[in-house]
Structures are given as C-alpha cells and as structure tokens.
Structure prediction request, 148 residues.
Amino acid sequence: MNTFEFIQQNFAKHLIELSGDPVVDTEAVLTANVPMVGKPARLASGWGIIKVGDATVQLKVAGDKYIKGGDERTRFEAWFDELQNFSGPTLFIEFAQKPISLDQVFVTFDKRAVRICSKNGVETFDWTSEPDEDAGKVFKILHKMRTK
Prediction:
C-alpha cells in the first residue's frame, strides 16, 4: 500500500466521498472542506496522526467513529505519545493555512525513519538515536521530552 492508498483508506474515506483514485482523494481530503463540528471547513490548522483504521486530529472533525477529533494536546505531545507507543504505519502531519502539497506526505513505517510532514517540508529522524547538531526542530523537542 502506498502513501496515497494509506490516506484514502484510513482517513479520506471517513471524511469525503471517494473518487476511487487514491491521489485525487488524498488531495481532496487535505485541501477541500471536510465535515467539522459546526460547519464544514478545510484542515487549516493543528495536527493529525493517521494509523491503520484509526485517526486522531486536533481539529473538531465530524467524521465517523474511526476519526477522533478535538484532541487538545499540542502536536509535540501527541507525536511524542504516539512514538513512545509506536505500533506500525503512521502518518504524522501538521495542518496549516497553506495546504500541504502531496510531495510532502509520507507514512512512517519504522521508528528509525520517522517522517513529520508539514507545508514547510518533511523532517526525517531516527527516534531510536540521539539528535546531533544538524537535527531538526521537531526531533530536538521530542528528544528533550523523552529525556525528562
């Protein structure tokens, strides 16, 4: 299963009507309005963690029972908790006013190659190692949380 099929089957299908094309469906769920508590809106801020059969997002998404919306943790707290209990393919994503482009979306399959996806790019790091001076901001913050 590629990244777009992963997003289509574990996130998009719970929020939008599928076209049948994983790339089209991934772009639609990341850029179009989706059901929210209140009125439909775009995923324009916050974070998400998408796993097989389960997704958690900070925004108050009104999906089905497979989408947990309104999580109040910070992105770092949520990603840290997920990495501490990592159990398989996971998409770590940050939503912003500018939609994330499809070339910035990757699924993490192994803690030795964690991918944090955002509109600013992808930060990749080995969760099982120590950050060096070239490590990215997210890895440094998460590592600091781990050593407390």
Helices lie at 3-10, 22-31, 75-84, 137-146.
